[in-house]
Amino acid sequence: MTDQKAELHPVAPARGDVPAERQCLRCKATFWSAGFGERICKRCKSQASWKSASASASGSARRSSR
Length: 66
Prior knowledge:
- This protein is extended.
- It has three helices and two strands.
- The chain has helices at residues 4-8, 42-45, 48-51; strands at residues 20-23, 30-33.
- The chain is an alpha+beta fold.
């Protein structure tokens, strides 16, 4: 069964969501991004640390001192 409303009224992208060159939030390299939701470059996404969802060694993962 399909949703007829979704077929009649496709969702339009946000006004600012356009392909552009952006800076990777992880390695700071410039890369071609399909939209503002894509902020990590393909090189960083292909690394094992990204695939395993482990925190980087930069100290971004912090534990509570409690």
